[in-house]
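hi! just following up on the protien thing from before. the input was this:
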Amino acid sequence: MEIRSGGTRSRAQRDRPEAAPAALAAPPSKSLGRRNSLGPFQQFFATASVPCPYVPGRAERKLIVELAGRAAPAFYNELSRAGFRRSHRFAYRPACRSCTACVPVRIAVERFADTRSTRRVRNLNTGANDGTLAGLLLTPRATAEQFELFAAYQRSRHRDSDMAAMSYADYRGMVEDSAVRTAIVELRDTTGALVAVSLIDWLDDGISAVYSFFDPAQARRSLGTWSILWLVEECRREGLPYVYLGYWIEESPKMAYKARFPALERLADGRWVPFAQD
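and the predicted 3d structure came back as:
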């Protein structure tokens, strides 16, 4: 998911959903793939329209479904391939009536090769001038140290958003309230200082980058980009083919940066295809 810069606690919880019309009640089998693997019937809901936090003047509406029970991880694997993201114990995808700006994207790990830009970021964070950052994969448990970094990031990057007002309890819910295989990645410098954190979900075909934040005082290191590159390398170590990045939105600077990653794919008409900007 993106936990939005315009939202904090699960938007599915805040926007009391309406039952979806029949056309939305169950996404087509073409999108969800192996329908028989999804288990019992799942009820999908459509939220009411609200102002879009990414494209001014447009309305946002989501299709959501609860993730619950032992089948939740397998169900979410299928949903992720269909362009859904996660917030707390809900999966969602855009269902806007007159807008298709949100494009699901993922990195194809096997085809990934550094560009000049990503090589520069890699060099900044892997040894030159004691720049090595150690990555630690941890169980999804919130800590005061993480929250302090999270709050500093929000104040610097998203001062006017709902997330900037999140309490430690809100942050803990974001990290720990999950029905799927969730983990935390901490990146620490050679002194042991925490400089970046990624909340991730393990999928059967890769890693979903749920939300990342970092020390805003270290802009030179491009820690947001390095967090994604670290996930690419983790997928290589585990033999997993994809890193899911959420939605690319050309008209939103907060989301358009994803187009800079090599080996990017987008979901179009129910199929993942090589990314290409028009």
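Residues 223-238 form the longest helix (16 residues).
The domain at 105-246 is CATH 3.40.630.30 (Aminopeptidase).
cheers
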